[in-house]
Design a protein that fits this description.
76 residues; Cryptochrome/DNA_photolyase_1; mainly alpha; chromophore; 2 helices; FAD binding; Rossmann fold
């Protein structure tokens, strides 16, 4: 969870993620974790800037050969 998604937008100060969307995200992550657990897997969830968190995870895991990501479209 990127903390920057829970502060106001630059133009009008509205939160990028409101309470209803946040509840949906949390419930979705919880459901995904439970589904993966039933299949013998797990879900890693972290809070922080992705550029920092991903780097830390790669260091912790040590055997990462590839990382895939997408970039959010920014307002001009």
């Amino acid at each position: 969870f990127d903390p920057r998604h829970y502060v106001g937008t630059p133009c009008y100060g509205f939160p990028k993620t409101g309470p209803h969307r946040l509840r949906f995200l949390l419930e979705s992550v919880k459901d995904l974790r439970e589904t993966l657990k039933k299949k013998g897997s797990t879900l890693v969830v972290r809070k922080g800037k992705p550029e920092d968190v991903v780097c830390d995870l790669i260091t912790q895991l040590g055997s990462v050969s590839a990382v895939a990501f997408h970039e959010e479209v920014r307002e001009i």
